[in-house]
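Bug report (template v2)

What were you trying to do?
Predict the complex of my protein with arginine.

What happened?
Run completed; filing so the output is reviewed.

Input:
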Amino acid sequence: MIREELQQIIFNAIGKEFKLSKEEIFLEHPENSDHGDYSTNVALILAKQLGKPPREVAEEIRSHILNTKYKILDTSIEKVEVAGPGFINFFFKKEFFLGELRQMVEQKEKYGSGKSKEKIIIEYSSPNIAKSFGIGHLRSTIIGQAIYNLYTFLGYKCIGINYPGDWGTPHGKILYQLYGKKLKGKTAKEQKKILNGLTIENLEKLYVDFHTELALNPAMEEGARAWFKKLEQNNAEARAIWEATRKISLREFERIYDLLNVKIDYTIGESFFSAKGEISPSRGGEDKMGQIVKEFKEKKLARESEGALIVPFPNDELPPAMLLKTDGVTTYFTRDLANMKYRMKRWKPSTIVIETGVEQTLHFKQVFLAARLAEIVDNEKLVHIAHGLYRSKEGKFSTRKGQTIHLEEVLSEAIERARTIIEESETTRGLSDKEKTEVARSVGIGGVKYNDLSQHPAGDIVFDWEKILNLKGNSGPYLQYTYARCKSIARKAGNSKFQIPNSKLQFSKEELDILRLAYRFPEVVKEAAEKFSPNVVATFVFEVAQAYNNFYNTHRVLQAEDKATKQSRLLLTAATAQIIKNSLSLLGIVAPERM
Ligand code: ARG
């Protein structure tokens, strides 16, 4: 990609003494096009190191570049200028932009893709069973899927894992409640029937009630503990009840994934690492957490503390983490270590990424450090992407019915609202009811996803319907609409094959604005992946759409002045559509042909 080529020739010009690596050579796109397409400040930095005037250094770099036989000097670079206190600005030839344009319409959905062969694990979604799918898990699902898409696009072998919370003390509470309130004294057959009839709401209510009732009856705590212990010891009754709650939950999660168009490669939850990880019987029967406990003891990384087994960290860098509680049951931390070990052994990835809420930051610091201390991982990169909260404009986030958030309700509302917009739109007039339903789904869900992904994961997100579905603002529907507009123009032109315009053709400022943006797609994707920030793609595609709409409002495409201009504008329209579609697809958003 052109950015990397520029970094290379600058790097060659400044020589090895310079302390920056090639990748660190800073190149920016100047706000003002009078300053070129890329600008670098390396001469200013280098001048400081050398004790020379920056402009002089900049001139030297410039001459070195111009006096070397680089192919891109012929094909792509119009001129190189030294400006201001010592910036070096690069200006591209029109041929370069046209060449990129050609690639966009020829390579289509492959434009900007990469060939990395590395293996990366991306864990996302990971809701908790016996609880409804929360809005926080929606964030993890959307962001994680986008990261997965970005890396897949760059050629990585991605392993997407859903790690549902299906083990641990909360499940003891649910078992306690289910047994005490619904199953006690019933025959096995009756019990089975009762369990089959349960919904997630029932389970959630039992869990909530547990905490209300606990205030009056503190002994319940002990009861719940005992049930979890039974579960860990593989007691058949505990196991059967737990199994049922898990099934009910996973079925419901599946529905949500379908609605969201999310596909995850593996579902391997916390229970897999329990004494009998029987989810996959072929691998079952080994006590993965027991092995972790043993390993940490043997390596002298764990010690007893007030009856529990803890892992202290060197120099108290982090607070100690607990491997076994006083009653000998395992913890979330224990399971995550077993999890790390399993993933390393099974897939040997070069990177493991885990997407969760920001409140788990300390937990993952502890897990990652402990895994390194125990040499479960070596040089592999471990990344925790932490997302912020959802908020509403009014402060508290609630749905139309005014209750606490129920994800499915939010998504249905989004689709319903999108449907209204679509009914009012002209371009959908020819669509059947079924097609409109499909478009409403893409627009509603797309709006919710884009609202999330257009902001940095770490920040909090405001949930505001006006903004989410605003056809005129920075929203999913705005981008989808721009895409549909481009497609409609192409249809009207008969979807003809385009010729790459002659480089003598004059471009208007508005056309150049699109050209000067669109070619950045490959570097944008790379940056978004490297920073684990899908919002980089969102910001970019919004700019492209704005540039196109600005052009469209100033110039005619189908009724252009002459044939050559029309051809070139149709090409520009097709390329814009492709860039929007590719960007949205990375964000997991469908781009309907009409809306
Ligand atoms: N189920 C957990 C929760 O909802 C998230 C799991 C995160 N991943 C992990 N490897 N611990 O809080």
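What did the reviewer find?
The chain is about 55% helix and 10% strand. Residues 277-285 have pLDDT under 50 and may be disordered.
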